[in-house]
């Protein structure tokens, strides 16, 4: 029951947090900014609209948003928000989840290529490229997690007495991982410094350019999917910071979402104070994240033996 | 009357020199048929030697004899058609020399006496020279000159070797007839120094004739310049005869307890031959020369196998049989190609599969066979040799062996695929494929396949008898 | 074994019949297809029969002294399945693929060699001693050589076939060397002797065999022939070569490993390292290639790498006494063998359909084909998802098992730990790059706008060709969604293969069920979202228009993102391992009329082979050709020199 | 008797040296005739050959005829026919050749003394001569360009081998087969070479073997 509730809450609040980012950015810019619930309005607006399809597109183009959204939701199903046991878990589910998200990216990319637009193709190429690097970084982190508590599932990482967090033994290493994961978060969710969701030049976009031709409910699905994905990563970072499960479920949830909000604030701050990287520096950026994670793994070899 | 086996072709050969062309062709084929028949009689033990002091039925000799006689029959059929097509000058000489060649080779196979063997081998050089020379072109002339001169020098050295072997008897104060049978019996008492000393000259002498590098230099010239039936005989039969000379002395060495010395020499010469053949097969512009180098390679393989001993020795003798069949088939196919395209250059030959489809199949199949792929027999013989080499612990030699096999396949494959499939859009075929020039290569190939599937017990037993003398066994 | 041999007999008869009746094109095709399919069905059935299945024996003495024997154990049975499954589908496909009655003889020769290849592969797998294996292996190499040579009029095909022949001969000689060492110390051709070798000899044997078999499998750096040969052959043959034949190399490696029973960790480590190198570099070069079939061929190298990673983990786990790692490693590797055979043949068939319809191979010449060829396009996408290792495709199942093994190997120490870590990271990189590559292929070839006008008028592949593709695509999904029976079967094979290995049955069952439910959940999610979308799209207007050109008003189809540019930035990231050469005409006037730009990615193994082996050897050999210079005087000198050398050796 | 043998052997040695230094083909052929006769005579003066039967005597007479008359005659005709009188450009000069001959004699002496074989008294010189002749024959084949000179070299090689044979072996077990073989070989060999020689001259307008370098790789 708790699990269903936590999943439901996550689904509900996913579009809330991007609003926080906008608020933070507006604050830094000295502006008032859009309302906190702006993303909900956007979704509703999009869902009401009709469709426009390019004559170049085929079935794949319509499948894209569906798969993107489905894979993001699937990831949330397995996530132990605030240390509450998720709806589903099994040994190895992290591998499945990251591959499921890979499927989402696959369809995202081919849907973009389906439009025959050179700009969307460019975005697709970048997405595919950076994705390969981010994946390596993430799996390196999984190696560390496995070495820390012998688990291969998100629930295993973050629930129970062996939960991974800063306070666990060898938790100091997690600092490196948190930074690395935060960097991956920015890359995977197309935030500054990898991508600028607010940019207006298609040539410099990654994620936004790929969805140029999606419209109406399709676009809503993609947007919602990316909110979920962002929430997934932000929650991941939050869970690594502190083991919330030791509190009661309600308190844990509250604290957890507070931490998640902090992560979003951090994203907002990053976006406000950093410029977007040149495109050819992005691989180096993700590689840095990989290096941090790898470094943590190497250190763990020294610590655990 | 086992001497009849070589006297028959010699007599008919001399007669054929004076016969008109058409009659001569008939005599050629009929003699070949008769010869095979007599050979089979010899195999069945119906013929006994009259001059027992000079001739005998050694198993290795009988093996070579049968192979020679078999391939000669089909080469003779081919030759008739080939001569008709090329309107050869002085055809009676060609026919006569072919028969004399057969006779002298049979004599080599039957010889038991050191000097008779030597004489017979020298005689093969002399009677085969006109076969190469028959076209009288400058190139043929040059090839013949090199063939006769180098082989004569080699054979002279072999004679010197024979003297030293005789000396080893004198030094040890043994007095037996100079036959292999009696020498083998007293081998242990022979003087080891002079025997080994003699063996050096013999392996160089007969090795020259056999085409072992670095004494092989005449071989590519002679084999490529001779008319195709003659090339097929030279490669398929003559080399075996020279090998027989080396092999008999190797047996003697082995029985005298000097097996390791002669084995090492054979392994060394074998490997050098294979490497040298590899060098020249790669990017060889002339396909007949490629086949000639391939003969050098295969003689190297045989020498290597004999040197290794054990199961490799069995492999070497199988290799000898199959190499004769396949190589003569290849030379006959190449004869068809030469007739069709009028050139020995690979670059000028292309699209065999379109222009000469039957020859293309036999040529390709021959290539597959000579590369040691099933269903042809060289597959199993090469395998035996490799197995034997590792079993005997010659790891390094086996590695060189394998490397040169790869090198040679690499060289030949390129040439053969280019010739069979590549190039030439419109080529005018000078001479088409006649039945008697297509059938013999196929029969020879088929023989190799059949012998790879089913080896008659008699042949198997003969091989076993041959190798059991020097301790070659099948199972370790 | 009677049914098994009867099955092979039927297949072979089918091949021979095709040759005999080649003048009656349709009859020959139909008759041989019938026999082939019947034979394969019988072959599959025979695996289930108690008298024929695992542990059936047969033997014969060949040429008086050479024993030949066949026996089916669980490993053989496992490898027989793809052979009997994929080959008949390729044969069915071929009915539609090669329908030119004018080239009847050629087609039938192809059919003959394909059937011969099938028989030879089946014999390789059931070979019961060293000699039988070598014999069958050579027949296999030979028949596949002729299949590669099929389009012999093209020079590239001849080159490819040549390269293939040289590699396969070198490979078989290495294998013979390995077997010869076994023979040398036991004196028999039996497999059983291998286990009694001393430990260091075992290592030597394994590495020789690994090089020999690996060259057939396409393990880096011995894969060089593969990207040339597979594209050269007709597509149904590429499907068999890539899908089935190269797995015989894997079979050989596993068989040798099992025979030797060596406990040296070096074996597992080496296999693992080879696997990682093949996997990452294979997929990298695939990204850099833009000929569909060549690209698919490089993906075979990649997948062989994944298989080798699995097997390497298995071997390492077995040595280190880590049953979960060992069991899942072997199981993952073997299952990937099966899975790869399915999706790779599917993809090659898809590529073949494209080539047949358009006559074009370069991805940047194609585009938008999914509208003209919906069945081909959708099957190809299913195959692409599977080969990228994404759920719910079958590729994911086996990759998951390998991941699972690798993660359980993280409890090891030292060098093994590092290797296992690297294996996980390589798998992740491979997965990412493979997905990138297949988004490229799908996106550029099947999606978007056709890059040529003629492409708008091509038609769908006929039903003879679509049927196998649809079947294979559904296999991909079925295995992905119902993986339990396959996982259980492969674990049974592993258990019989390595009896010492005890994998927890409950764990296996749980993993299988979990994977199954995860896949089904994913499908359910997609269906759910589809329903949601449907709900929101009711009574909505659907407008159609051109793609938004970001303000550019006169787009042409040539302006679409090309495969080359799609991949270039990724490939250049891995620069030292992939040599990129660009050819740019340059711009020298203010209004240039025409500029040309091209880039190609070269395989470092190929470059190294040329630079460090072929060129030096050719140079030295070229110099040595001086030996035959024509001077008779020096020829005599050689003889004298030889005498002198021998006499010196003799006297010293 | 020994003195007689030694005299013959010295003549042979001289002929070898002369042949190395000679540049006129007709002179060379004459030298070969002399050498042939001497070589055929040698066995007659050796001790263990002294008990020759009448068959043996006839055999040696034939041998002298062939080696001393027939073969040189054939060669002479060949020289006439090709109408060249001298070796113009030897690959190795005459002085060097002569020097080589001397070195050869020295080496032969050394080898003879080193060989652990109990030679009958006086046979040392025979062996020295034999080896020198053999080596010089090979040398002529290598060092001269004219095909005729190579044939002559081959003849010398055979002479040397024949001498070694007579020096080292007892006659009892060979039954003249050796001699018969050598003779046959020489005869047919030289005849065939003569035919080729003729044709070479015909085809190349010269008997210079340096022209024959078409066949190579």
TrEMBL record, chain A:
It is found in: Membrane. One of its GO terms (cellular component) is plasma membrane. InterPro entries: ComplexI_Subunit1 (IPR052561), NADH_UbQ_OxRdtase_su1/FPO (IPR001694). It is a multi-pass membrane protein. The chain crosses the membrane at residues 6-24, 66-90, 96-116, 128-148, 168-187, 227-244, 250-273, 285-303. It holds the Pfam family NADHdh. It comes from the Bacteria. GO terms for molecular function: lyase activity. Its main location: membrane. This is Formate hydrogenlyase subunit 4. It comes from Desulfofustis glycolicus DSM 9705.
UniProtKB/TrEMBL annotation, chain B:
InterPro entries: ComplexI-like_HydComp, NADH_UbQ_OxRdtase, ND/Mrp_TM. Keywords: Cell membrane, Membrane, Oxidoreductase, Transmembrane, Transmembrane helix. GO terms for molecular function: NADH dehydrogenase (ubiquinone) activity; oxidoreductase activity. It is a multi-pass membrane protein. GO terms for cellular component: plasma membrane. Residues 111-404 form the NADH:quinone oxidoreductase/Mrp antiporter transmembrane domain. Signal peptide: none annotated. The chain crosses the membrane at residues 6-23, 28-45, 61-80, 92-109, 115-135, 147-173, 193-212, 232-249, 261-282, 302-325, 337-356, 363-389, 395-417, 438-456. It comes from the Bacteria. One of its GO terms (biological process) is ATP synthesis coupled electron transport. It is found in: Cell membrane; Membrane. PANTHER family: HYDROGENASE-4 COMPONENT F. This is Hydrogenase-4 component F. It comes from Desulfofustis glycolicus DSM 9705.
UniProtKB/TrEMBL annotation, chain C:
It comes from the Bacteria. PANTHER family: FORMATE HYDROGENLYASE SUBUNIT 3-RELATED (PTHR42682:SF3), HYDROGENASE-4 COMPONENT F (PTHR42682). It is a multi-pass membrane protein. Pfam families: Proton_antipo_M. It comes from Desulfofustis glycolicus DSM 9705. GO terms for cellular component: plasma membrane. This is NADH:quinone oxidoreductase/Mrp antiporter transmembrane domain-containing protein. The keyword rRNA processing does not apply. Residues 127-412 form the NADH:quinone oxidoreductase/Mrp antiporter transmembrane domain. The chain crosses the membrane at residues 6-23, 30-49, 75-96, 108-127, 133-150, 162-183, 203-226, 238-260, 266-288, 300-321, 380-406, 418-447, 467-487, 507-532, 632-651. Its main location: membrane. The keyword Nucleus does not apply. GO terms for biological process: ATP synthesis coupled electron transport.
TrEMBL record, chain D:
It is a multi-pass membrane protein. Its main location: membrane. Keywords: Cell membrane, Membrane, Transmembrane, Transmembrane helix. Coiled coil: none annotated. It is found in: Cell membrane. The keyword Membrane applies. The chain crosses the membrane at residues 57-79, 91-113, 125-142, 151-169, 175-197. It comes from the Bacteria. This is Hydrogenase-4 component E. The lineage of its organism: Bacteria, Pseudomonadati, Thermodesulfobacteriota, Desulfobulbia, Desulfobulbales.
């Amino acid at each position: 029951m708790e699990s269903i509730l936590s999943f439901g809450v996550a689904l509900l609040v996913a579009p809330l947090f991007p609003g926080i980012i906008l608020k933070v950015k507006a604050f830094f810019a000295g502006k008032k900014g859009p309302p906190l619930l702006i993303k909900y309005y956007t979704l509703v607006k999009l869902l009401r609209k009709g469709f426009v399809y390019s004559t170049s597109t085929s079935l794949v183009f319509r499948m894209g948003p569906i798969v993107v959204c489905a894979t993001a939701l699937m990831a949330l199903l397995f996530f132990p928000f605030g240390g509450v046991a998720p709806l589903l878990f099994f040994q190895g589910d992290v591998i499945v989840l990251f591959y499921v998200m890979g499927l989402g990216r696959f369809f995202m990319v081919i849907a973009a290529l389906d439009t025959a637009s050179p700009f969307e193709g460019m975005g697709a190429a970048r997405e595919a490229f950076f994705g390969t690097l981010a994946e390596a970084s993430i799996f390196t982190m999984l190696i560390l997690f496995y070495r820390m508590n012998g688990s291969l599932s998100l629930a295993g990482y973050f629930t129970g007495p062996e939960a991974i967090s800063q306070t666990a033994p060898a938790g100091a290493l997690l600092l490196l991982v948190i930074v690395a994961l935060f960097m991956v978060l920015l890359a995977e969710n197309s935030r500054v410094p990898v991508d600028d969701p607010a940019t207006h030049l298609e040539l410099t976009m990654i994620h936004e350019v790929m969805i140029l031709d999606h419209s109406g409910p399709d676009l809503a699905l993609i947007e919602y999917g990316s909110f979920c994905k962002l929430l997934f990563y932000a929650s991941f970072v939050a869970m690594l910071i502190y083991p919330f499960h030791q509190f009661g479920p309600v308190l844990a949830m509250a604290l957890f979402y507070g931490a998640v909000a902090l992560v979003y604030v951090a994203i907002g701050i990053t976006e406000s104070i950093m410029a977007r990287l040149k495109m050819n520096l992005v691989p180096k950026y993700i590689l840095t994240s990989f290096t941090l994670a790898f470094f943590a793994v190497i250190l763990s070899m020294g610590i655990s033996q | 009357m086992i001497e009849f086996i070589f006297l028959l072709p010699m007599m008919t050969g001399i007669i054929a020199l004076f016969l008109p062309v058409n009659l001569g062709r008939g005599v050629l084929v009929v003699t070949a048929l008769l010869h095979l028949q007599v050979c089979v009689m010899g195999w069945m033990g119906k013929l006994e030697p009259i001059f027992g002091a000079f001739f005998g039925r050694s198993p290795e000799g009988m093996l070579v004899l049968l192979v020679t006689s078999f391939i000669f029959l089909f080469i003779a059929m081919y030759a008739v058609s080939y001569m008709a097509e090329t309107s050869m000058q002085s055809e009676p000489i060609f026919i006569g020399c072919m028969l004399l060649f057969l006779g002298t080779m049979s004599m080599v196979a039957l010889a038991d006496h050191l000097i008779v063997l030597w004489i017979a081998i020298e005689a093969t050089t002399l009677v085969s020279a006109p076969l190469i020379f028959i076209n009288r072109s400058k190139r043929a002339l040059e090839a013949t000159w090199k063939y006769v001169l180098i082989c004569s020098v080699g054979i002279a050295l072999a004679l010197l070797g024979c003297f030293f072997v005789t000396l080893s008897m004198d030094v040890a104060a043994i007095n037996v007839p100079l036959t292999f049978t009696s020498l083998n019996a007293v081998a242990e008492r022979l003087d080891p120094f002079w025997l080994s000393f003699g063996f050096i000259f013999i392996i160089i002498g007969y090795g020259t004739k056999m085409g072992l590098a670095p004494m092989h230099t005449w071989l590519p010239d002679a084999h490529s310049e001779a008319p195709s039936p003659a090339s097929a005989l030279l490669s398929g039969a003559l080399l075996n005869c020279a090998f027989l000379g080396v092999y008999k002395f190797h047996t003697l060495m082995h029985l005298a307890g000097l097996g390791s010395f002669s084995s090492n020499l054979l392994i060394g010469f074998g490997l050098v031959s294979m490497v040298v053949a590899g060098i020249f097969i790669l990017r060889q512009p002339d396909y007949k020369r490629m086949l000639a180098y391939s003969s050098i390679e295969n003689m190297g393989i045989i020498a290597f196998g004999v040197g290794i001993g054990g199961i490799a020795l069995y492999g070497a003798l199988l290799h000898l049989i199959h190499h004769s069949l396949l190589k003569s088939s290849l030379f006959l196919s190449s004869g068809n190609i030469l007739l069709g395209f009028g050139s020995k250059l690979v670059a000028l030959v292309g699209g065999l599969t379109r222009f000469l489809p039957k020859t293309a199949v036999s040529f390709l199949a021959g290539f597959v066979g000579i590369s040691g792929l099933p269903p042809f027999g060289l597959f199993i013989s090469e395998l035996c040799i490799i197995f034997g080499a590792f079993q005997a612990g010659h790891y390094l030699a086996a590695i060189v062996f394998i490397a040169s096999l790869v090198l040679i396949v690499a060289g030949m494959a390129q040439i053969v695929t280019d010739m069979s499939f590549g190039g030439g859009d419109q080529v005018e075929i000078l001479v088409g494929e006649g039945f008697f020039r297509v059938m013999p290569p196929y029969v020879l190939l088929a023989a190799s396949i059949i012998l790879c599937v089913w080896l008659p017990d008699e042949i198997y037993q003969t091989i076993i008898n041959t190798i059991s003398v020097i301790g070659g066994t099948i199972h370790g | 074994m009677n049914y098994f041999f009867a099955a092979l007999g039927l297949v072979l008869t089918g091949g021979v019949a095709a040759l005999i009746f080649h003048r009656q094109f349709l009859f020959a095709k139909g008759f041989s297809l019938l026999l082939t399919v019947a034979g394969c069905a019988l072959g599959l059935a025979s695996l289930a029969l108690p008298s024929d299945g695992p542990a059936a024996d047969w033997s014969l003495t060949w040429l008086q002294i050479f024993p030949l024997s066949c026996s089916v154990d669980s490993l053989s049975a496992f490898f027989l399945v793809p052979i009997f499954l994929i080959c008949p589908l390729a044969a069915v496909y071929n009915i539609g693929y090669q329908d030119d009655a004018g080239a009847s003889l050629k087609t039938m020769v192809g059919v003959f060699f394909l059937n011969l290849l099938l028989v030879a592969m089946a014999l390789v797998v059931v070979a019961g001693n060293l000699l039988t294996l070598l014999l069958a292996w050579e027949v296999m190499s030979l028949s596949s050589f002729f299949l590669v040579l099929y389009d012999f009029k093209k020079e590239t095909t001849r080159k490819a076939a040549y390269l293939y022949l040289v590699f396969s001969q070198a490979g078989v000689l290495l294998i013979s060397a390995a077997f010869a060492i076994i023979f040398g110390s036991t004196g028999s051709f039996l497999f059983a002797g291998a286990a009694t070798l001393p430990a260091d000899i075992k290592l030597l044997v394994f590495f020789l065999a690994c090089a020999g078999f690996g060259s057939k499998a396409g393990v880096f750096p011995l894969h060089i022939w593969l990207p040339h040969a597979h594209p050269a052959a007709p597509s149904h043959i590429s499907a068999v070569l890539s899908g089935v034949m190269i797995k015989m190399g894997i079979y050989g490696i596993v068989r040798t490993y099992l025979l030797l029973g060596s406990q040296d960790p070096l074996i597992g480590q080496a296999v693992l390292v080879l696997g990682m190198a093949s996997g990452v570099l294979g997929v990298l070069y695939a990204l850099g290639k833009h000929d569909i079939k060549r690209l698919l061929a490089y993906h075979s190298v990649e997948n062989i790498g994944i298989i080798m990673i699995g097997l390497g983990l298995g071997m390492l786990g077995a040595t280190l006494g880590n049953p979960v790692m060992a069991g899942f490693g072997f199981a993952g590797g073997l299952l990937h063998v099966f899975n790869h055979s399915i999706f790779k043949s599917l993809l090659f068939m898809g590529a073949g359909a494209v080539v047949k319809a358009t006559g074009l191979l370069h991805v940047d010449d194609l585009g938008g084909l999914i509208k003209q060829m919906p069945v081909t396009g959708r099957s190809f996408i299913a195959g692409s998802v599977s080969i990228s290792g994404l759920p719910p495709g079958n590729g994911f199942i086996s990759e998951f098992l390998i991941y699972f093994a690798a993660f359980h190997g993280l409890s090891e120490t030292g060098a093994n730990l590092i290797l296992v870590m690297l294996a996980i990271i390589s798998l992740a990189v491979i997965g990412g790059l493979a997905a990138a590559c297949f988004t490229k292929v799908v996106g550029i070839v099947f999606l978007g706008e056709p890059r040529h006008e003629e492409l708008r008028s091509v038609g769908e592949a006929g039903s003879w060709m679509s049927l196998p593709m649809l079947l294979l695509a559904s296999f991909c999904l079925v295995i992905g969604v119902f993986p339990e029976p396959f996982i259980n079967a492969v674990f049974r094979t592993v258990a019989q293969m390595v009896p010492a290995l005890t994998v927890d049955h409950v764990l296996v069952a749980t993993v299988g069920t979990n994977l199954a439910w995860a896949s089904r959940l994913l499908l359910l999610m997609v269906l759910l979202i589809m329903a949601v979308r449907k709900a929101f799209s009711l009574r909505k207007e659907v407008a159609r228009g051109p793609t938004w050109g970001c303000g550019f008003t006169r787009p042409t189809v040539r302006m679409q993102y090309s495969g080359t540019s799609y991949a270039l930035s990724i490939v250049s990231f891995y620069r030292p391992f992939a040599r990129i050469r660009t050819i740019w005409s340059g711009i020298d006037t203010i209004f240039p009329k025409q500029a040309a730009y091209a880039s190609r990615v070269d395989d470092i193994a190929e470059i190294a082979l040329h630079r460090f082996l072929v060129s030096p050897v050719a140079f030295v050999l070229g110099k040595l050709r001086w030996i035959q210079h024509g001077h008779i005087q020096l020829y005599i000198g050689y003889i004298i020199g030889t005498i002198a050398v021998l006499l010196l050796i003799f006297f010293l | 008797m020994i003195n007689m043998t030694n005299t013959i052997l010295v003549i042979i040695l001289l002929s070898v040296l002369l042949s190395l230094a000679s540049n006129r083909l007709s002179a060379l052929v004459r030298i070969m005739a002399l050498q042939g006769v001497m070589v055929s005579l040698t066995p007659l003066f050796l001790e263990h050959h002294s008990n020759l039967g009448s068959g043996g005597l006839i055999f040696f007479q034939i041998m002298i005829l062939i080696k001393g008359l027939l073969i040189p005659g054939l060669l002479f005709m060949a020289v006439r026919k090709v109408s060249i009188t001298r070796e113009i450009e030897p690959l190795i000069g005459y002085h060097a050749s002569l020097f080589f001959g001397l070195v050869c004699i020295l080496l032969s002496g050394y080898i003879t003394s080193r060989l652990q074989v109990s030679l009958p008294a006086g046979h040392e010189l025979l062996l020295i001569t034999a080896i020198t002749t053999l080596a010089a024959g090979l040398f002529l084949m290598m060092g001269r360009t004219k095909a005729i000179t190579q044939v002559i070299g081959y003849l010398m090689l055979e002479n040397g081998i024949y001498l070694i044979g007579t020096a080292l072996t007892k006659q009892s077990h060979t039954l003249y087969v050796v001699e018969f073989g050598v003779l046959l070989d020489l005869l047919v060999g030289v005849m065939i070479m003569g035919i080729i020689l003729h044709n070479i001259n015909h085809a190349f307008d010269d008997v210079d073997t340096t022209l024959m370098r078409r066949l190579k790789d």
